[in-house]
């Protein structure tokens, strides 16, 4: 909610000219989230400090639908940290308050913006996964980084520290406009990545423009870019394509596969040697490629994709000429909407459109629409079901739908020790209800096959490692 | 030929008017049938082409006509097809439609001379274009058709010659189908397959209270048997009276005399029909015990055989009884066939559904139609011997294989009681053993209904659903809400067999106008006063997490009543059907503690039950919401208490510079800092560390159900006192909820209750819940809110955010509307009550789940979550 910038440049009051803000006045601007106040707690020739205080109006935020959507926690829309942290709202306010300075114009003193100044900035408070994360983002830009952690609740010491830090940045010689653009870009990047906040398209594009000069050299550019695109995608899904160049590229963007362990810690805290985002994405691709290949080998003409998600397997299956029809189901309405968009279902030519039915369904309810298929793909689905509900899943798929073949993939728990960020017993994804060892999966698969007249073989998915096997496993059931 | 003045038709039939253009079909139809019963080809042509005479539209017009006819027949409505219908292929499609929906086709031929028809056509502008050949050609087709109509499948054929005969018809008489005995309400004693087991039948009838006297007589019309039925009751035989057993003629004699005497009804079985064919002189294979019957009949008189023949010939395939609530047929009856007439219906009644396959015993493989049965009517049937009669989707097979050494069973209707007598001996060895040799152990423990309920059908929950409830005539679930519920139910809910009930949402009282308050008891009391309530119950609102507990006395009782195996004796679940505990060991320990308390309190004996369903609050809040508190509430407080002092410091520094407006900003920011501290205190009050069972507290407030009962008919004081008795049995774990009964007209009473609320909330309590004294107040036109909450000022900080009391904020927050929340609360309440009542009444999981799913779906309606 608060940013202060101090300089000891002589005369320090040049800061007022640079910012185009009079040190003798309190200025208040109306911004999207509420009001931004600009004032100078000190303004002498030796030392001058400007403060930007963002006073978020939480009630106004709700009424203008600008706050968090409140998914999973309904009250989040109303009770949240937005009024107290440096967030994308803060970036927007920063841009509005110091637009002239950020553009590097100073009418009265045209030489000032290019001057390297000793600068100090304090942000209170900024969310981050760790102090190291703050260091890894700001140190490469030449700052001395100082952080102060805050306890989650001082009366409950065992809860440890919160995710909020007071951040102090010092630089011996830097253009003010660069510091502003660093803050402008990196503040929303640090904002919690697992939630989308409202940023309009224009601002998303500005983010890119502001980073243009220094971002390409930044060691964390991939992570920073990814965070931009998350914002952009939410605003306008086509913007992502626009920015990435072409459609094929979207699949290769380092967006972590949904079923992998990356939600708890930012990628920056992942050791390079462990599964980086790129490697994990390729695992998901590899898994889908393998399933598609197996479906082709089986010669299946009518294929079920149970738990189709955003449609990555469907896209592969549509390319296979021998497949006449795909019934792709997901229980999540949101995922289906994403799939609709990603696969461009509305714009498909009629013949292609006829090959695909994309609709809501559940693998826990008998569904007569599932009968009469040659193969069913159940990719990374079962581990999202409570173990006690697997009997219902078994009934629906193996007893009632009875496709000619069923392909089931699930993580291999034996492999989890290879993920250094996972502690023992921890799952790769917070929604996983179980992760099976190879032996457990084999036992379950054999039981299912025996009860329903299928034969089954299991193969590793992904590069195998001695003792622990491959990261994922595939069971192919055939009647 | 005499002129008909009235035509008799089956009440449900497809009537084809057959006649040339200009024969007067439309006039005839309009005169004798309701306008909505007539589907006309001209009208269909107009609908698809804007022109009744556009012949190019004929295929589409008939597609529409067939579609409409099909829908009407599916819905069981008499339908008249106003088209020429002179060509056999046109009639064939329609007759097929009638067959598909088990409706009898009727033909009414309007046969007028060509000249009359042509004159009429000439008089009508829109028929001017008809060529001269048209009418004669149509009439020729009609004449050729006449002799084939019976063969085509028409049961009733009326041929009206000339305008005079046509005009003579004044009325259509609609005959009820023989199977329709809806006025007949019983009570009945429905008796399964007898197969010549006379002694057992006699024993069973005696046990049911019938008195049977036999006195042989010379008069052949008198069968020599006289039966007195118990008051008002009648026997209802499900057929297969004969074959295999030792005394088929005696059984026939007894049943026939009971039917004659009005003490019984009877539907035919396949064996009875085989006997009829034999008596009619047809060749019949002497298999499956028929030889015995033939031998037994050899000594009977021709007169008796003739009576048997007449009796069997008069039997009706199945009966729909008691206002449509009961259907009986030998081998069962699918819903869409009930009360309809066709060859397929009769065949189904006799043989049931078979797949066409033959099993290892050489018998046809039967398809269990009952597993898909969704009908409202109870269906009682026999035909397939089963070791024990079991309910499945409101159907029951009561053929318990008496002739094979099993039992002869009767179902008393409407009591649903089974009465059985054992077979005196094995009269016939069954080809297929009566009891299957081996069944998986866990499956064998479950009833047929429970096994069937292992799998729910997506069609029963998705799409727009309209659920009839006792409290509200119908609750509509919108498709998008059902879609949301499908996701939540599939991803997060526990085994649906545990989900008997989901609690309704609760509205707050209307917004208070008092300073510094959003809610106050005055508005809640006002609401109930306006609803005509004299008394309310105020219960302290515990700030924990809502939990529904379904708990059996032991795992065996859980299996028996809930049909779950290996999931422990019970479950605790949240308002959205999620498992409350993530730690199974802790859950079991908790449930065991609760079981012990119930045992100590003598609950099981007192309520004659081995299970119960409780509505309760589990404390502390942090037990369930720890992660939420850390990630949301504590996080907001941490951010606020870290950032605000920095802002205050910088503003204080700025005040020394004397900048305009900074003082006010400092004051406001300092106020926010204080608010943030109060906010942190507010959530901390409801948290304490949970390390073991002894840190948990359970405050039950509704005893919802036990075996055979729900307790929605008991007032809240009863619930409070009943639960207090249980709480006393384990005062560490269980917490009785403080409450008071308030007489709304008694000012002192109301003031005292208000003071109680003020004290509770000042001490940091969440507030209270105000409920009408009766769980469901009677005598009101509209349903009254089952409860309103009144939350305290401090508590509301965690709902409305740290700054909610700041100047400018509270005023805006007062603009809240409780109406849609209340509407939702009533609909969810009606569904919750309905689901639990269905469960207690022994409904299938599908019927219970529909209500529970409905509550979850309604919860996805967009309503301000702060209310």
TrEMBL record, chain A:
Source species taxonomy: Bacteria, Pseudomonadati, Bacteroidota, Cytophagia, Cytophagales
Protein name per Swiss-Prot or TrEMBL: Small RNA 2'-O-methyltransferase
Reactions this protein catalyses: small RNA 3'-end nucleotide + S-adenosyl-L-methionine = small RNA 3'-end 2'-O-methylnucleotide + S-adenosyl-L-homocysteine + H(+)
EC number: 2.1.1.386
Keywords for the protein's UniProt record, in alphabetical order: Magnesium, Metal-binding, Methyltransferase, RNA-binding, RNA-mediated gene silencing, S-adenosyl-L-methionine, Transferase
Family: Belongs to the methyltransferase superfamily. HEN1 family.
Stored Gene3D superfamilies: Hen1, N-terminal domain, Vaccinia Virus protein VP39
Stored InterPro entries: 3'-RNA_MeTfrase_Hen1_bac, Hen1, Hen1_N, Hen1_N_sf, Methyltransf_12, SAM-dependent_MTases_sf
All residue ranges annotated as the Methyltransferase type domain in the record: 304-407
Domain of life the protein comes from: Bacteria
Residues annotated as domain Hen1 N-terminal: 1-242
GO biological process: regulatory ncRNA-mediated gene silencing; RNA methylation
Cofactors, names only: Mg(2+)
Family matches, as Pfam families: Hen1_L (PF12623), Methyltransf_12 (PF08242)
Enzyme class name: transferase
Signal peptide region: none
Molecular function terms from GO: metal ion binding; RNA binding; small RNA 2'-O-methyltransferase activity
UniProtKB/TrEMBL annotation, chain B:
Domain of life, source organism: Bacteria
GO CC, alphabetical: cytoplasm
Ranges of residues in domain Calcineurin-like phosphoesterase: 187-387
SUPFAM superfamilies: DNA ligase/mRNA capping enzyme, catalytic domain, Metallo-dependent phosphatases, P-loop containing nucleoside triphosphate hydrolases
Xref: InterPro entries: Ap4A_hydrolase, Calcineurin-like_PHP, Metallo-depent_PP-like, MPP_PrpE-like, P-loop_NTPase, PNKP_bac, PNKP_ligase_dom, Ser/Thr-sp_prot-phosphatase
Single annotated GO MF: phosphatase activity
Matching Pfam families: AAA_33, Metallophos, PNKP_ligase
Polynucleotide kinase-phosphatase ligase domain mapped to chain residues: 484-861
Protein keywords: Kinase, Transferase
CDD domains reported for this sequence: MPP_Prp_like
Name this polypeptide is given: Polynucleotide kinase-phosphatase
Taxonomic lineage: Bacteria, Pseudomonadati, Bacteroidota, Cytophagia, Cytophagales
């Amino acid at each position: 909610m608060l940013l202060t910038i101090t300089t000891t440049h002589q005369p320090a009051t040049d800061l007022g000219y640079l910012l185009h803000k009079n040190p003798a006045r309190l200025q208040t601007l109306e911004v999207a989230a509420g009001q931004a106040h600009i004032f100078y707690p000190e303004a002498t020739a030796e030392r001058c400090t400007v403060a930007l205080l963002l006073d978020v109006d939480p009630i106004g935020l709700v009424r203008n639908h600008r706050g968090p959507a409140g998914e999973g926690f309904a009250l989040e829309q109303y009770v949240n940290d937005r009024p107290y942290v440096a967030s994308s709202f803060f970036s927007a306010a920063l841009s509005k308050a110091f637009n002239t300075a950020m553009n590097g114009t100073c009418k009265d003193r045209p030489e000032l913006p290019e001057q390297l100044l000793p600068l100090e900035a304090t942000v209170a408070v900024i969310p981050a996964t760790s102090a190291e994360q703050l260091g890894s983002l700001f140190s490469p830009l030449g700052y001395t980084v100082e952080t102060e952690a805050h306890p989650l609740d001082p009366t409950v010491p065992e809860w440890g520290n919160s995710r909020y830090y007071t951040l102090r940045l010092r630089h011996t010689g830097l253009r003010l406009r660069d510091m502003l653009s660093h803050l402008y870009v990196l503040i929303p990047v640090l904002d919690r990545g697992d939630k989308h906040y409202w940023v309009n398209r224009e601002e998303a594009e500005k983010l890119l423009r502001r980073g243009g000069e220094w971002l390409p050299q930044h060691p964390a550019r991939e992570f920073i870019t990814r965070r931009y695109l998350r914002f952009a995608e939410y605003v306008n899904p086509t913007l992502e394509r626009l920015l990435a160049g072409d459609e094929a590229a979207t699949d290769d963007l380092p967006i972590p596969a949904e079923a992998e362990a990356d939600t708890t810690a930012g990628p920056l805290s992942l050791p390079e040697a462990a599964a980086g985002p790129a490697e994990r994405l390729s695992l998901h691709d590899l898994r889908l490629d393998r399933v598609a290949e197996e479906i082709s080998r089986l010669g299946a003409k009518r294929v079920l994709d149970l738990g189709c998600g955003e449609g990555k397997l469907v896209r592969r299956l549509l390319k296979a000429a021998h497949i006449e029809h795909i019934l792709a189901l997901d229980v999540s309405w949101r995922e289906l909407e994403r799939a609709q968009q990603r696969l461009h279902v509305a714009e498909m030519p009629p013949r292609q459109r006829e090959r695909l039915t994309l609709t809501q369904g559940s693998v826990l309810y008998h569904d007569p629409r599932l009968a009469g298929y040659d193969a069913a793909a159940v990719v990374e689905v079962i581990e999202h079901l409570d173990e006690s509900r697997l009997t219902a899943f078994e009934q629906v798929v193996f007893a009632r739908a009875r496709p000619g073949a069923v392909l089931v993939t699930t993580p291999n728990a034996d492999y989890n020790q290879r993920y250094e960020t996972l502690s023992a017993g921890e799952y790769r994804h917070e929604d996983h209800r179980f992760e099976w060892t190879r032996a457990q999966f084999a036992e379950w698969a054999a039981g299912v096959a025996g009860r329903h007249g299928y034969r089954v073989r299991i193969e590793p998915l992904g590069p195998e490692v001695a003792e622990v096997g491959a990261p994922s496993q595939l069971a192919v059931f055939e009647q | 030929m005499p002129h008909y003045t009235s035509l008799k038709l089956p009440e449900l039939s497809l009537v084809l008017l057959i006649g040339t253009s200009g024969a007067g079909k439309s006039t005839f139809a309009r005169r004798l049938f309701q306008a909505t019963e007539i589907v006309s080809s001209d009208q269909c042509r107009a609908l698809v082409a804007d022109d009744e005479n556009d012949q190019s539209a004929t295929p589409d017009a008939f597609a529409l006509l067939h579609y409409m006819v099909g829908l009407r027949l599916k819905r069981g409505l008499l339908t008249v097809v106003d088209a020429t219908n002179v060509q056999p292929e046109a009639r064939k499609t329609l007759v097929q439609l009638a067959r598909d929906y088990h409706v009898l086709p009727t033909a009414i031929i309007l046969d007028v001379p060509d000249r009359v028809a042509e004159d009429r056509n000439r008089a009508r502008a829109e028929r001017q274009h008809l060529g001269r050949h048209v009418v004669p050609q149509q009439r020729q087709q009609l004449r050729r058709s006449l002799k084939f109509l019976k063969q085509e499948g028409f049961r009733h054929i009326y041929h009206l010659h000339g305008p005079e005969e046509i005009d003579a018809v004044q009325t259509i008489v609609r005959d009820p189908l023989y199977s329709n005995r809806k006025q007949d309400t019983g009570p009945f004693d429905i008796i399964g397959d007898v197969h010549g087991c006379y002694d057992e039948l006699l024993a069973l009838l005696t046990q049911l209270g019938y008195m049977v006297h036999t006195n042989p007589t010379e008069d052949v019309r008198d069968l020599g048997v006289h039966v007195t039925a118990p008051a008002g009751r009648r026997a209802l035989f499900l057929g297969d009276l004969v074959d295999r057993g030792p005394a088929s003629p005696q059984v026939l004699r007894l049943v026939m005399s009971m039917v004659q005497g009005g003490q019984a009804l009877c539907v035919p079985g396949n064996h009875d029909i085989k006997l009829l064919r034999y008596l009619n002189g047809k060749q019949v294979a002497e298999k499956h015990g028929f030889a015995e019957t033939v031998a037994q009949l050899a000594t009977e008189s021709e007169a008796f055989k003739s009576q048997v023949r007449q009796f069997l010939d008069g039997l009706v395939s199945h009966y729909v009884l008691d206002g449509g609530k009961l259907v009986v047929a030998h081998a069962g009856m699918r819903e869409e066939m009930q009360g309809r007439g066709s060859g397929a219906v009769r065949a189904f009644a006799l043989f049931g559904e078979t797949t066409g396959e033959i099993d290892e015993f050489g018998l046809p493989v039967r398809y269990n139609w009952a597993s898909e049965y969704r009908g409202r009517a109870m269906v009682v049937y026999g035909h397939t011997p089963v070791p024990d009669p079991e309910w499945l989707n409101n159907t029951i097979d009561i053929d318990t294989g008496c002739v094979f050494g099993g039992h002869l069973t009767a179902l008393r209707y409407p009591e649903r009681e089974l009465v059985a007598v054992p077979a005196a001996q094995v009269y016939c060895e069954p080809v297929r053993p009566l009891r299957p040799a081996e069944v998986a152990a866990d499956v064998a423990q479950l009833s047929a209904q429970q096994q069937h309920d292992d799998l729910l059908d997506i069609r029963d929950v998705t799409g727009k659903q309209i659920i009839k409830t006792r409290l509200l005539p119908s609750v509509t679930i919108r498709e998008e809400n059902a879609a949301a519920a499908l996701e939540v139910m599939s991803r997060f809910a526990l085994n649906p067999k545990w989900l008997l009930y989901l609690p309704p949402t609760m509205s707050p009282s209307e917004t208070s106008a008092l300073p510094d308050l959003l809610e106050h008891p005055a508005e809640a009391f006002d609401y109930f006063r306006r609803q005509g309530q004299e008394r309310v119950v105020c219960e302290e609102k515990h700030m924990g997490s809502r939990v529904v507990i379904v708990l059996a006395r032991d795992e065996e009782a859980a299996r028996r009543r809930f049909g779950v195996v290996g999931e422990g004796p019970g479950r605790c679940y949240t308002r959205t059907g999620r498992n409350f505990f993530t730690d199974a060991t802790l859950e079991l320990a908790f449930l065991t503690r609760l079981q012990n308390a119930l045992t100590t309190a003598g609950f099981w004996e007192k309520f004659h039950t081995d299970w119960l369903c409780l509505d309760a609050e589990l404390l502390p809040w942090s037990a369930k919401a720890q992660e939420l508190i850390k990630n949301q509430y504590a996080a907001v407080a941490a951010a606020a208490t870290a950032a605000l002092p920095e802002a205050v410091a910088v503003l204080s520094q700025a005040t020394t510079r004397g900048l305009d407006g900074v003082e006010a900003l400092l004051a406001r920011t300092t106020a926010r800092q204080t608010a943030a501290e109060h906010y942190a205190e507010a959530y901390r009050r409801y948290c304490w560390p949970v390390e073991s069972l002894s840190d948990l507290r359970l405050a039950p407030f509704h005893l919802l159900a036990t075996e055979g009962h729900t307790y929605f008919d008991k007032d809240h004081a009863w619930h409070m006192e009943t639960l207090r008795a249980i709480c006393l049995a384990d005062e560490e774990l269980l917490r009785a909820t403080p409450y008071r009964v308030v007489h709304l007209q008694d000012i002192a009473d109301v003031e005292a209750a208000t003071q109680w609320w003020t004290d509770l909330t000042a001490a940091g309590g969440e507030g209270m819940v105000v409920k009408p004294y009766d769980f469901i107040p009677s005598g009101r036109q509209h349903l009254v809110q089952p409860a309103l909450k009144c939350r305290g000022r401090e508590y509301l900080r965690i709902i409305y955010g740290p700054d909610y009391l700041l100047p400018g904020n509270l005023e805006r927050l007062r603009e809240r509307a409780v109406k849609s929340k209340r509407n939702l609360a009533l609909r969810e309440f009606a569904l919750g009550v309905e689901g639990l009542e269905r469960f207690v009444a022994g409904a299938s999981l599908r019927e219970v789940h529909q209500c529970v799913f409905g509550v979850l779906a309604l919860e996805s309606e967009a309503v301000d979550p702060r209310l």
